């Protein structure tokens, strides 16, 4: 059994001016809701990615600090390379 799609196809609406207006309004509302949902999901994903990048930056900073301390303990000079 195939999964059912959440989108259902309805019979075409009559081509009267009031029917067309109703369909356009319904489509506009649907598209606005869809775009709003997509924007929320995109924002959530963006926030998560930025949070992970900040966390990774902090971890890299801590790693550099620990490596510097180990080099000092080992008596190796810390000569940073100019970039």
From TrEMBL:
UniProt-annotated stretches for the region Disordered: 1-22
Domain of life, source organism: Eukaryota
GO molecular function, one term: transcription corepressor activity
UniProt keyword list: Coiled coil, Stress response
Organism: Hydra vulgaris
Protein name listed in UniProt: Heat shock factor-binding protein 1
Coiled coil: 46-73
GO term, biological process aspect, one: cellular heat acclimation
Gene3D superfamilies, A to Z: 1.20.5.430
Any Pfam family hit: HSBP1
Recorded family membership: Belongs to the HSBP1 family.
InterPro entries per the UniProt record, alphabetical: HS1-bd
GO cellular component, one term: cytosol
């Amino acid at each position: 059994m195939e999964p059912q799609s959440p989108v259902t196809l309805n019979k075409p609406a009559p081509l009267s001016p009031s029917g067309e207006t109703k369909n356009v309004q319904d489509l506009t509302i649907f598209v606005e809701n869809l775009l709003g949902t997509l924007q929320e999901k995109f924002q959530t994903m963006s926030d998560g990615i930025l949070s992970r990048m900040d966390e990774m930056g902090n971890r890299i900073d801590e790693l550099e600090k620990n490596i510097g301390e180990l080099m000092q303990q080992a008596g190796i000079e810390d000569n940073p390379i100019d970039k």
